[in-house]
What does this fold into?
Amino acid sequence: AQVSPEDQIEYRKAGYSFMAWNMGKIKAQAIDGSVAYDQAQVAAAANAIAAIANSGMGALYGPGTEQSVGDEKTRVKPEFFTQKEEVAKVAIAFNQAANNLAKVAAEGDKAAVAQAFGEVGKSCKGCHDQFRMD
Ligand code: ASC
It folds into this structure.
């Protein structure tokens, strides 16, 4: 099914928002300690992030999505659409970090989760620095 450029932007932003919500849950439990560590919750959050990371979101950067469309704003930089190899690098790094976090979260060690979470955060930031406008 065809997805309009406006919907592509909406869906990709929804994916990032949902991952951010789940990152926040892991951060609260494994990093800040503001919420008690619950292994099942952390594993569920990590699995949600990995599922989205593995879902092929690159398909939501089609023609016509280089700029905001209608009410859907995007902060993607123009370089994202020309530097395919660089994009592939940050995407693969993110994917691997997200899959590793899910694996580590399933095993349950909090310190290892904190470490793996940090690696995911770095991979998020790596893409933001290169391909997201402020
Ligand atoms: C998050 C979130 C991001 C990343 C980034 C890591 O929780 O919403 O965009 O982590 O801040 O540097």
The longest helix spans residues 5-32. The chain has one domain: 5-131. The pocket of ascorbic acid is lined by residues 20, 23-24, 121, 124-125 (CB under 6 Å). The two ends are 32 Å apart (CA to CA).
